[in-house]
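Example record for the data management plan.
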Amino acid sequence: MRFGIMLLVGFFVTKLVLPALIKILSEADILKENWRGEPVITIGGIIIPVVLCLVYIPLGIRQTKPEDHLYLIAVCAVSLLGLTDDLLGGSSQKGIRGHFLYLWTQRKVSTGVIKAFGIGLAALWVIVKLQTDYIFLNWLVLVLSANFLNLLDLRPGRAIKGFIIICVPAVIMSLSADNAYGINNDYSLLAVSSGIVLAYARYDFQSVLMLGDTGSNTLGIIAGIALLKTPVFFRAFLVLSLIILHLAAERYSFSKLIEGNSWLNKLDRWGRE
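Corresponding structural encoding:
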């Protein structure tokens, strides 16, 4: 019940705020070329921390739990790091390897390296504050999830689909844990974020907005937080899968691999045609 209410709150607040935000960003002329060479607002994902703050701050004192404040601070920090990379980052360094090679060869720190270290620190801060078991595993869940959705944000709607694919099993597995171990999980952050995504999605699918690092890294850390509540075997499996996918991304183009598989290509194109 609470999940549905929070989802609707996130949805309607986004519907109310997003048109005004689009107008502001359009007037600011914050545009980049997308994969088709068309100019698109590339920091559309800024709507996520904006709406989360609008929802949580009025509720914050009495209606939310201490961990919600922790999550909100971490999410806003990741959004700010992504925004910095979107606005100030260059296009010459690609991928984790590219950014660190640039650091090694040029002796210069790119915004991508700053973002990577910042996300790592934000994730560690969350894990330490939560006082969870399996600290290193949980840290990897947050960091890899945050970067993985960023890797997907190369076509309209792709990162959003990745967010849904990750979060649905996360919720199902967590509910199973509730029943088996009596864990009372609260999905307020995920619920509000899901409402934001539902209201935002058509703008992304129609190439009006692009999440950018601002949004894709943010959705990734939110998905990672949801995954922290899943059983440890699932987290271990997921981390192994994400490591393999990150290594593959350094050598192969996800877009070409998706286009070469008929099922994945249909899923990828669904909603934007």
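Summary line stored alongside the record: The beta strands are 31-33, 39-41.
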